[in-house]
Specification:
Blueprint (H helix, E strand, L loop, with lengths): L1 H13 L8 H13 L3 E6 L3 E8 L4 E7 L18 E3 L5 E3 L6 H16 L7 E8 L7 H7 L2 H5 L4 E11 L3 E2 L3 E4 L1 E10 L3 E2 L9 H12 L2 H5 L6 E10 L5 E2 L2 E10 L2 H22 L6 E8 L2 E3 L1 H12 L19 H7 L3 E9 L10 H10 L15 H16 L3
Parallel strand pairs: 3-6, 3-7, 7-17
Antiparallel strand pairs: 1-2, 2-6, 4-5, 8-17, 9-16, 10-14, 10-15, 11-13, 12-14
Helix pairs in contact: 1-3, 2-3, 3-12, 6-8, 9-12
Bound molecules: zinc ion (2 copies).
One zinc ion binds next to loops.
InterPro entries: Amidohydrolase, Bact_exopeptidase_dim_dom, Peptidase_M20, Peptidase_M20_dimer
Protein name: Amidohydrolase
């Protein structure tokens, strides 16, 4: 069983697919569910896969894994590293890698689904196993819901799932309340007036405008968000110009904003709009800039009572303590299923960090220091160790499902 799952993991890792292009991954997941006896529907919300297994009366538990990979060139040096390529959203050819570990999520859920199917005396009710496309662009959960997920397959009483993280492998971590930040992706177009690089007085330089804007945007969190609140504002994309001696016509910025409450979100997005407009005015821009929110993830809120109930189950899945990671600044669309169903969500972290990195660390501070040494999700060097990550992830899903479907 575990050798078979490890092989499945390496296979998925070698064959990553970008958001909404997870056709091979979906077919593999569907095949696993069929083999385990699930009623399987493919093509839900694009490439999504739903497996239903009814086992007497009782509640409905939704178990979710996301399937998509990222436009990243893998640099892990693993013998099963990806060399795959795909077409990015801007139409450009790109390297593709499972730099967020969704291949681990798919493998764990395939393993858990099979184990639950083969042990029907340990639970009663209905399992709704969901392999979701396009988590990375925030569209997959909504696409499945818009395709009638709840009407066609049933309304869950709980939504359960996990994300692999750079914690020690085998450690499970779950937070109550706002567990994952809400996220907004913002595109800004700054308009200047182009010309010859030798005659700046005839131009409005959008490169300088962009630079000034980036610097002032970094004052928002430090000066406008209360010390007791949390937010992240980063500029991950800055594009302008084609040649050294040409002042370009425009510049483009791409921002990521993370927040946990609507009030902080509004404050930060309001400040972004104000600063972008203000800097453009200060530069004498010939046209107003454009600010567009192109992607929004609401925060993932873990239901407190449901977390308590699930934490006890998770504790049976690992010999290590189940820890509270505190709020995570990463974002997730898994909460959309719970919100649509009016059901509690419990979404936990699954440690995948190489145990060798943590060797000799015994205090929480020492472990925290070592975590900082590990590549984070989305890094070209991110990859969980297969074991004990995989076995723990399968056991966690199985234990959580049995808890919610207790006979
Ligand atoms: Zn990710
Ligand atoms: Zn992810």
């Amino acid at each position: 069983m575990s050798a078979d799952l490890a092989e499945l993991y390496r296979d998925l890792h070698r064959h990553p697919e970008l958001s909404f292009a997870e056709t091979r991954t979906a077919a593999v997941a569907a095949g696993r569910l069929r083999a385990a006896g699930y009623e399987v529907t493919e093509g839900v919300g694009g490439t999504g896969v739903v497996g239903v297994l009814r086992n007497g009366t009782g509640p409905v538990a939704l178990l979710r894994a996301d399937m998509d990979a990222l436009p990243v060139a893998e640099d892990t040096g693993l013998d099963y590293a990806s060399t795959a390529r795909g077409t990015a959203r801007d139409g450009e050819d790109t390297a593709v890698a499972h730099a967020c570990g969704h291949d681990m999520h798919v493998t764990c859920l395939a393993g858990a689904a099979a184990e639950l199917a083969s042990t029907p005396d340990t639970w009663t009710g209905t399992l709704l196993v969901v392999f979701q496309p396009a988590e990375e662009i925030g569209g997959g959960a909504h696409a499945m819901l818009d395709d009638g997920l709840l009407d066609r397959f049933g309304v869950p009483d709980v939504v359960l799932g996990q994300h692999v993280a750079p914690l020690p492998a085998g450690v499970l971590a779950v937070a109550s309340g706002a567990a994952f930040a809400g996220s907004d992706t913002v595109r800004v177009t700054l308009h200047g007036s182009g010309g010859h690089g030798s005659r700046p007085e005839t131009t409005v330089d959008p490169v300088l405008l962009a630079a000034a804007t980036v610097l002032r945007l970094h004052t928002v969190v430090s000066r406008e968000v209360a010390a007791t609140e949390t937010a992240v504002l980063g500029v991950g994309m800055l594009r302008a110009g084609t040649k050294e001696n040409i002042v370009p016509e425009s510049a483009e910025l791409g921002l990521t904003v993370r927040s946990y409450t609507p009030a902080v979100r509004e404050r930060v997005l309001g400040a972004v709009r104000r600063i972008v407009r203000g800097e453009a005015a200060a530069a004498g821009a010939p046209r107003d800039p454009e600010v567009r929110v192109v992607e929004t993830f609401p925060p993932v809120v873990n239901d407190a009572a449901a977390v308590e109930r699930t934490r006890a189950a998770l504790a049976t899945a690992t010999p290590l303590p189940v820890v509270d990671p505190g709020p995570v600044t990463g974002s997730e669309d898994v909460g959309a299923f719970a919100t649509a169903a009016g059901a509690p969500c419990v979404y936990w972290l699954l440690g995948g960090g190489d145990p060798a990195v943590f060797a000799g660390a015994s205090t929480v501070d020492e472990i925290r220091d070592r975590v900082a040494d590990l590549p984070s999700n989305h890094s070209p060097r991110f990859a969980p160790v297969i074991e004990p990550t995989l076995s723990t992830g399968v056991a966690a899903l199985v234990a959580a499902a049995r808890e919610w479907l207790r006979p």
